[in-house]
Design brief:
258 residues; alpha+beta; 14 strands
C-alpha cells in the first residue's frame, strides 16, 4: 500500500496538478489531503472517481478541511474527534483501509503568543488523547498530515534564524514530542536520519529552488506498520512545477507491505 500525505492548499486550485501527479508520476493507493478549503458538497468527487478513488471528506468553506481518497474503499470512516468544540474546525478524519487506520490531521498553524498558539498546544493534547485509544503496539495505524511543527534542527533550513518562530518554538516542539510519546514512529526520520526531507517552502523568493524549507508534514506509524515500511520519501514533482501552480507543500509518500 502506497500512502501519501499532501497539504494541497485548496483542492480546487490544485486539482489539475494533483490529477496529473496521480496519473503520470505517482499513482498512490491512499491520498490524505489537508487544507482542502471547501465544503463536502463542493469537493470534486467525480474527478477522483474517474481515477479509481473513493473519497471521504470533512470540509468547510474557505478554510482548513481534510480528505482521504482510497483505491481500496473504506471499512469505516470517522469525521472529527466527535467533540463539537474541536470539530468546529475541520482538522481530523479517520478511515480504516485494508485494516490500516489512517488518521489524517491538519494541525493549527498557531501564532507567536496569542489564543491561536494556546489552541495549537491544546490541539496536540486532544490528538494524543484520540490516538491513545488505539493499540499502537498491535494495530496498524498511520497518523499523517501537516503538523505545522518541525522537530529538530535538521528539519529546518536555518535553525538559528528560525528558532522561536511559528513552527519551531520550544513549547510547540515539546507538545509535538509529547504527542509522539504515545508510541508513534517518525518513519521518515527513522529511515533517513541524515536527510533534511523538507516538505514546505515559502512561495517568496523561489525558496524551494534554494531548498530553504521546513519538514512539517509527516507519516507517523505504529510499530506494526513501521515494520512493514518499504520506502518513504518526499516527492518534489508537484512542488517544482511552474504550471499548474503548486501548493507550498510537497507530498510525503510511504510504501508499506500491506
Amino acid at each position: 500500500m502506497k500512502i501519501a500525505t499532501f497539504n494541497v492548499n485548496s483542492i480546487n486550485a490544485r486539482l489539475e496538478l494533483i490529477k496529473r501527479w496521480l496519473v503520470e508520476k505517482n499513482p498512490v493507493d491512499v491520498l490524505a489531503m489537508q487544507e482542502i478549503k471547501c465544503e463536502e458538497s463542493k469537493f470534486p468527487f467525480e474527478d477522483f472517481k474517474k481515477l479509481g478513488y473513493e473519497c471521504a471528506v470533512f470540509g468547510q468553506k474557505g478554510y482548513n478541511g481534510v480528505a482521504i481518497c482510497s483505491k481500496f474503499g473504506f471499512e469505516e470512516v470517522q469525521k472529527g474527534f466527535g467533540d463539537p468544540f474541536w470539530d468546529e474546525q475541520k482538522r481530523v478524519i479517520r478511515g480504516r483501509i485494508k485494516g490500516v487506520e489512517v488518521i489524517n490531521v491538519y494541525a493549527p498553524h498557531g501564532d507567536l503568543d496569542g489564543e491561536k498558539h494556546i489552541y495549537k498546544l491544546q490541539f496536540f493534547k486532544k490528538l494524543k488523547e484520540y490516538v491513545s485509544k488505539f493499540d499502537l503496539k498491535r494495530q496498524m495505524v498511520a497518523v499523517v498530515g501537516d503538523m505545522n511543527v518541525a522537530r529538530d534542527d535538521i528539519d529546518v533550513w536555518a535553525p538559528e534564524l528560525l528558532r522561536g518562530t511559528i513552527g519551531f518554538m520550544d513549547d510547540e516542539r515539546e507538545a509535538f514530542e509529547d504527542f509522539l510519546s504515545t508510541g508513534l514512529h517518525d518513519t521518515f526520520r527513522e529511515c533517513h536520519p541524515d536527510i533534511p526531507g523538507f516538505t514546505w517552502w515559502d512561495y517568496m523568493s523561489a525558496a524551494v529552488f534554494r531548498d530553504e524549507g521546513m519538514r512539517i508534514d509527516y507519516i507517523l506509524t505504529s510499530t506494526p506498520l513501521k515494520e512493514r515500511c518499504i520506502d518513504i520519501y518526499v516527492d518534489m514533482w508537484t512542488r517544482k512545477r511552474r504550471k499548474p501552480t503548486p501548493s507550498d507543500h510537497a507530498p510525503v509518500v510511504g510504501e508499506f507491505d500491506v
